[in-house]
């Protein structure tokens, strides 16, 4: 089955995006029938326009859905760290016959943010088209109306997607388990497809509350270097920058740098 990766680069000048582009291209080139669509957003001068434009990844995916391919939406700060893993493997292991979408928990899934939209695997069907059309049409949640529901004051697509899935009965907003299964949506742990790598001592104290299952370990499919300022993300890009021009291969150090003591370093 063809697999189409849709990646939106919201900050064209930032270093980690070029690293992610190179790593994703190498990954796609290793797998037959994988297609990479790296969508570059225009540069805007107003923050609201920048954040609203993140909906481009949903618009692009919606335009390119067809009955023969699977679509994987990936944030531009997601790095493939195990190229042997395929989204088809994830689908085979966790989807049932009516599954339309697989996404992962957020690190703060027990603190009011049930899912993270950094990596989403979707098959083209009526439910997928409905949810994408709704998210694109309605746009971000209004902080004036919804407050900081699902981090609506700082995030764009993820709060709206979470809200609409809840409205359709496809998501528990007060989950009690790391995984959940609904008629069209399956939620998996971050270790499966969206584990976080955060630089310690960053500006957001919430990093300290990331549960163990959310933290990146050697052998995970991808690492999402989310929730950090540009300086910290550049540091993360240098760590995961294997294959990027001018960047030393630091992958041997990853086991020491992760906060999880069970991580193993590749020989």
UniProtKB/TrEMBL annotation:
Taxonomic superkingdom: Eukaryota
Protein name: Nucleotide-diphospho-sugar transferase domain-containing protein
Species assigned in the record: Triparma columacea
């Amino acid at each position: 089955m063809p697999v189409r990766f849709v990646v939106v680069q919201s900050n064209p000048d930032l270093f980690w995006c070029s690293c992610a582009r190179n790593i994703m291209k190498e990954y796609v080139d290793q797998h037959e029938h994988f297609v990479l669509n790296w969508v570059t957003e225009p540069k805007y001068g107003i923050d609201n326009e920048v954040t609203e434009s993140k909906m481009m990844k949903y618009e692009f995916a919606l335009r390119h859905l067809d009955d023969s391919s699977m679509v994987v939406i990936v944030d531009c700060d997601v790095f493939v760290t195990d190229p042997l893993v395929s989204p088809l493997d994830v689908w085979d292991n966790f989807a049932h016959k009516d599954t339309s979408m697989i996404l992962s928990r957020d690190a703060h899934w027990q603190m009011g943010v049930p899912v993270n939209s950094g990596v989403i695997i979707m098959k083209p069907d009526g439910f997928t088209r409905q949810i994408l059309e709704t998210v694109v049409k309605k746009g971000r949640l209004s902080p004036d109306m919804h407050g900081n529901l699902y981090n609506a004051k700082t995030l764009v697509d993820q709060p709206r997607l979470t809200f609409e899935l809840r409205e359709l009965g496809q998501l528990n907003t007060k989950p009690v388990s790391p995984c959940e299964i609904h008629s069209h949506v399956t939620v998996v742990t971050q270790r499966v497809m969206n584990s976080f790598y955060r630089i310690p001592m960053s500006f957001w104290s919430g990093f300290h509350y990331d549960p163990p299952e959310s933290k990146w370990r050697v052998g995970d499919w991808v690492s999402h270097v989310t929730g950090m300022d540009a300086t910290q993300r550049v540091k993360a890009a240098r760590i995961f920058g294997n294959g990027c021009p001018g960047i030393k291969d630091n992958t041997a150090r990853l086991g020491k740098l992760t906060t999880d003591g069970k991580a193993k370093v590749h020989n």
